[in-house]
Amino acid sequence: MASKRTPSSNKPKSTVAQARGGKRPASGRTWENFKSIVALVAIFLGIRAFIIEAYRIPSGSMEPSLLVGDWLFVNKFIYGPTIPFTNHPIRVRIPGTPIRFYRDPRRGDIVVFQSPPQIDQPEDPTPTLVKRVIGMPGDTIYMRQGLVYVNGIAQRQGYGAHEPPSPDEQHRYDPLFDWQHAFEIRGTRFGAPPAQPTHDDWGPLRIPENRYMMLGDNRYNSKDSRYWGLVPRTNVRGQPMFVYYSYDPECGSGVCFLTDIRWKRLGHLIR
After folding, report:
1. Mind listing the pLDDT tens digit for each residue in 110-120?
2. Number of domains in the chain
3. Is 38 a domain residue?
4. Does 61 participate in catalysis according to the annotation?
5. Is 76 a catalytic residue?
6. pLDDT digits (tens, 9 = 90+) for 163-214
7. Phi-psi region of 45 (alpha: psi -120 to 50; beta: other; left: phi over 0)
């Protein structure tokens, strides 16, 4: 009588077949999942640190260019990325050539930066802010009756959002303005600086190397370089690109971010 063949299911499997067909231990799956999560987090942090970061507009200091409730994407690569958790820039350049993949801020740029220390708000002395570059390294800058002059040339402010306050407020002295005395210059064709700088009358100041003067577009509702001083180049973080989301925070309900979306602002390019 012919012997019965052993079913194929009982044949011994090769090591390769067992590895392909066998189930992976739970500990192995957990480790693979962990590595995937770590990789995703690393990619996210890399993009956020070196390329693009989101930023929310918290005040009306840049109206009408930027509105409270605007959410922006900020290009962090344009001015050169920084080492994470430091202010040290990473200089990206093709070796042996003058070509570099970043540039310095220019007059008129809207920039995101870390504020110099603000002694009047110890709870948050160096917040991240967004303002417009008005004074460049080497510039002589001053203000008379609310009008900014750069190197003796009046700068047309084509974006002021509100009417100026009363004359008393315009000429009010604030001790926070005293930092300006260290940068004042005398004996120039631009006239002598006032004994006490005020909101609308100060300078002339000489902007030193690697420093910038930042002012808000909404000059009468902006706490800017007039109060806390010049911004070091290493504090500059990036340039806003466009508004990716916006809503009216004063709509009166608790779900303004859903009910009062500013649809026309979505995709708005920032200049």
Report:
1. 999 999 999 99
2. 1
3. no
4. yes
5. no
6. 666 777 777 889 999 999 999 999 999 999 999 999 999 999 999 999 999 9
7. alpha
